[in-house]
């Protein structure tokens, strides 16, 4: 578990530090970037939020609140609190047209900054839990690497970056979006800002 948690944080830190991010959209307080490497597409959503970084961190690290702003989360059940900083959740997401509803078993790892210039981190990856085998009503999907980095800008504002390394399991939700025919990433980002503020 210690290894999984370390690799969860490390994978997100590595993804955030990758070169070659291309900006695809800029709104008032939201920027969307993509990074393509072989068959792997990653995206980053950067949000300017008018709350202190530790407030954003405490709200974003509580996945039971996620449905309040992310309509892709249908249910989110805490399966295991491994420690203060590591929790395992079972998430179900609404079916997209022509697709079976999906479910995910995810490990959420939290880290507070060790030094002032470091971000708060909420890292997410799929794990296998014997207690929750795949069920026929859902298509079990995998999150390779996703999560948030929260950088403090001032005592009352922060930059929240959401990252996701996209697998085919998440692709139906994004395909329409990245081609510009759907606004789901932008809408979710704006809902997230509204929720945090």
From TrEMBL:
<dbReference type="GO" id="GO:0005737">
    <property type="term" value="C:cytoplasm"/>
</dbReference>
<dbReference type="InterPro" id="IPR023393">
    <property type="entry name" value="START-like_dom_sf"/>
</dbReference>
<dbReference type="InterPro" id="IPR002913">
    <property type="entry name" value="START_lipid-bd_dom"/>
</dbReference>
<dbReference type="Pfam" id="PF01852">
    <property type="entry name" value="START"/>
</dbReference>
<protein>
    <submittedName>
        <fullName>ACO12 thioesterase</fullName>
    </submittedName>
</protein>
<feature type="domain" description="START">
    <location>
        <begin position="18"/>
        <end position="166"/>
    </location>
</feature>
<dbReference type="GO" id="GO:0008289">
    <property type="term" value="F:lipid binding"/>
</dbReference>
<dbReference type="InterPro" id="IPR051213">
    <property type="entry name" value="START_lipid_transfer"/>
</dbReference>
